[in-house]
Every structure is written in C-alpha cells, then in structure tokens.
C-alpha cells in the first residue's frame, strides 16, 4: 500500500509511523521546521504504547510523491481548502482521500476539489501532538479510528485500509456504514469539550464540579446533535447520554487541543468547529445559544492568534 499523509502532525505523524511499521509505503507531507527535522533525522514517536522511529520520505511538494492508494488528510480544518487544492498529484483513478480531521465540512471541501468518488470519511480519537520538530508525542486516549464510505456502502477499498490499520500496532479501527453520523458525534463531543475547556480555561474536572458549567457542557452537545439530525444523521438522545457518561469518566485534568492552541498562541479551529455549527444551525433555523456564546468568547482570541501566527 502506498499512502501519503497530508499533514504529518500529531494525528498524521502517529498514524503514518504505525502504518510504516506495518510495512506500508508511507510518504509524509509537512512544512517548516517539522519538515526539516523529518528530512534530517526521520520520524520519532514517543508513545505510551512504546517509542519507535522510522525513516520516511518527507516533502512539502505532493508532486514529488505521485499517485497513491490512499491519502490520509490530517491538516487542521482552517488549512483544508488550501491543502485540498494541492491534492491533484496524489490522486489517481482509484485513490481514496480519507479525512481524519475535526469538523463537519471537510469532506465536502475535498469532494469539490477531487471529486466525491475519491473521498472517504474518518474519525480519529488519539491524544498526540508535535512535541518538537520531528517528534510526535502520543500521550494516550482511546487511539481508535473509524473509517467508512460517505454513502454508507461497504467497499473493498475501505476494507483494505481497515486491514492495514488492524495490522499496525497501537491502533484500533472500526469500519463504519454510518461514518457521517460518527463525524457529527465527534463534532458534538469536541464542541463541548474544547469549547468549555478553552472558554473557561480550566480542566474538565473543575467544569464537572459546578452544576451550571456542567449543564452548559451538556447543552453544547445537545445543540450540535440537533443540528446534526437536521443534516440527516441518526444522532439520538441516547447519543447524548452515552457521550456524557464518557465525559464523566475522563481524567479530571483533561483539556483539549483548542485550549492548547489558545494558550500557546497558535491558530485555532474555532471556525471549523463552533463556527460551522452556527452556520449550519442558521440554515435550519435552529437555536444554538451555547455554541454562539463559546464562539463569541473565543473569536477575539482566534483572531489574535491568527494574526500572531501570520507575523
């Protein structure tokens, strides 16, 4: 299997490294000092499942790689449009582009660029980030992945990719016939978890401790589920209960990547998360006051961090 990882950061670097360990031909696409380190010293993963290192080809030019069997698309949601425009050299007649991103709009953006027939959906639950250039820190989490065709079919290409994930160490995979619903489920969880930890600037345990804050966490989740149902997914009240139980079981010191980006002056995925939910809600005339509150609180920070990142 020849696979390109477009965005070899926390998620992409970890998955790409594990697939390479399993014998896949993996090419990494990165930029900046991270790319420099990958070229000079290879990819190093410091993982709770065991550290490892692999020497993989890395580039910022997809044309150097050529057509692949799969492109694992793992850039931040604010980079989706720009990166999608560079996919053409990687996409052959049978190539599948698999989004493993946060948010509910990425797949449609990819389809507009490469054609819907090339796009698969995916969900990643893994706690990993770039610790330093060339180094991925995998600190835990479920380390589970869900992939599937957006039309709900069970295809040969999806089954093949799932088998490669199963072959790799340190990853669990599920092949789903309702991956669109899975994408919305994760979006609901992130809007609650990321929205609250970033807006409050305190870990989950302190949010759970206060009835008003924990109620807002739940309402964020419920609002996204309502919008998701209007968009055609099968999100139910049981979905809310299951995920609230999951959040109850998380470590009290849990934060989110949105909180990390906020506090470290990095660009934030606010538009791809709460911003996207608000826009979808307005299309369906659904009230989402909790998402609007989080969006209003974090927008000045998102703008400041974006400007700082450009400078």
UniProtKB/TrEMBL annotation:
It comes from the Archaea. It holds the Pfam family ApbA_C. It catalyses: (R)-pantoate + NAD(+) = 2-dehydropantoate + NADH + H(+); (R)-pantoate + NADP(+) = 2-dehydropantoate + NADPH + H(+). Keywords: Coenzyme A biosynthesis, NADP, Oxidoreductase. The keyword NADP applies. Residues 179-298 form the Ketopantoate reductase C-terminal domain. Pathway: Cofactor biosynthesis; coenzyme A biosynthesis. The keyword Metal-binding does not apply. Residues 3-151 form the Ketopantoate reductase N-terminal domain. Its EC number is 1.1.1.169. GO terms for biological process: coenzyme A biosynthetic process. GO terms for molecular function: 2-dehydropantoate 2-reductase activity. PANTHER family: 2-DEHYDROPANTOATE 2-REDUCTASE, PROBABLE 2-DEHYDROPANTOATE 2-REDUCTASE. Catalyzes the NAD(P)H-dependent reduction of ketopantoate into pantoic acid. Belongs to the ketopantoate reductase family. This is 2-dehydropantoate 2-reductase. It comes from Halobellus rubicundus.
